[in-house]
Amino acid sequence: MVGIFGIFGIPNSVPNIPGFSLLLLSTTFIGFLSYYLWIWSYWIRKGVKGPRGIPFAGIMHRFQDYNYPFWRVMMDWTKEYGPIYGITEGVEKTLVVSDPEFVHEVFVTQFDNFYGRKLNPLQGDPNKNKRAHLVSTQGHRWKRLRTLSSLTFSNKNLKKIMKTVDDSVAELMRHLEKGCAGGKTVDMLEYYQEFTIDIIGKIAMGQTQSLMFENPMLPKVKSIFVDGRKHAFFASAMFPFLGTIFRQIFSMFPSIQPASDIMNIIEKAVEARIDQRNRDEKLRIEVSGEPQDFIDLFLDARADVDFFEQEAKDDFAKTQITKVDKHLTFDETVGQLFVFLLAGYDTTALSLSYSSFLLATHPEVQRKCQEEVDRECSDPEVTFDHLSKLKYMDWVIKEALRFYPLASIVHNRKCMKATTVCGVEIEEGTNVQVDTWTMHKDPKIWGDDVNEFKPERWESGDEQFIQKGGYLPFGMGPRICIGMRLALMEEKMLLTQILKKYTFETTSETVIPLKLVGRSTTAPSSVNLKLRPRHSD
């Protein structure tokens, strides 16, 4: 007691420093432990079923197995706990859902209450990060970035980069011709990764020529998806203050963190382009006026509307108070190019891989696709208008994405204002994570033939599935993937040229069914196929 009296300045007391320190340490520990037990028991107190995991980590340790991806874990839990259940991920509280009506309500109908995403603890505060991008930002900053970036992905601008995509298609076809000569089996996933990183290098990083199968960027990007920041992410999710420490370390030593290294490379590419444009202007060099690539498009992006930014605590729909520039800043340009690189490289390569595998294992579907290509794209050059006529190929891609939803881990939203969804009360700060794989395999949505690869199911359009909330390979609602049209354009252009010349076939080296692995996205371990020249048909 003497030590306690001492801290209040009672004159006749003699402070017991060791005793006070022990008391302070004990109190801090109890408060610390109570805080994490309070979070861990959140769903128990709410009466919501679900896997409990362990205090501090919650169920995060279950999402770390590269060979048993998180979507498999969620599907297992959905079978056990039903279409709505609760989990904790470090200090985050998450509701996992596979009810399409619930999903549509969150992603579309109540978007103003769920405009944020579940944030990566290593990203930092999206309101303060100068290089925050479309995936991480929220509220009015997201709306501004979305409006400015959308101009880059318009059909008009996509047509301008078709020549760049076509050059990479031609380069890959040359490599395929060598690789599959003599009936050799090739891993199509590797070829498609080379293809997508080549395109992105040209349109997002200032690359002036093809570096296919010699691209120094590819190992850096691959490492993010294979290992990334697993241990740093795990630790930061439990103890958020560590996120700031890790970010400082990564910025000081970018070579130990691929994402930081890539960001620096993009920064230099943007600086070089700005310098070039300034030199051209000073020398009064006439330029065509057409953008070279996405760096130019982002630098030139300008909205025709006035933007206003609100105070951080304001609701998404409240009165706007501060005027904001209509251009993207330098740092915002770097941020958008970075997230575009990661999203565009991996998901498009994976979609191509899954489509090719399904065509190889369903010869009758492949024949129909080839007949359409022969009919609609008989000219050597494939135009934007040609692609719009490939209806059956479009069904094939959509059905492949139903079978294998790609980056389903990002199909989530954060509740920004307490609300009720389908009778479930959701508090502010709670995350909603969609179990996309379960929904894409739900016979109540797709019918009894749900496990059949059936492109014809899309013949009557996709609204019947999208409106129900049951199909979201690119997300859903206002935050749907901004690069969707570019990804589909790349995929159709390449598949068209391949199917003109070859037929996909399985071999003894083809893994059937595919072995699926991954953390942030879901990838096949390999897609070993043979490409038989069609002149031998």
UniProtKB/TrEMBL annotation:
Keyword Hydrolase included in the entry's annotation: no
GO molecular function, one term: iron ion binding
The protein's required cofactors: heme
Coiled-coil stretches: none
Segments crossing the lipid bilayer: 20-43, 232-250
Binding-site residues, heme: C481
Family: Belongs to the cytochrome P450 family.
Name this polypeptide is given: Cytochrome P450
Provenance organism: Caenorhabditis nigoni
Lineage of the organism: Eukaryota, Metazoa, Ecdysozoa, Nematoda, Chromadorea
Gene name linked to the record: Cnig_chr_II.g4009
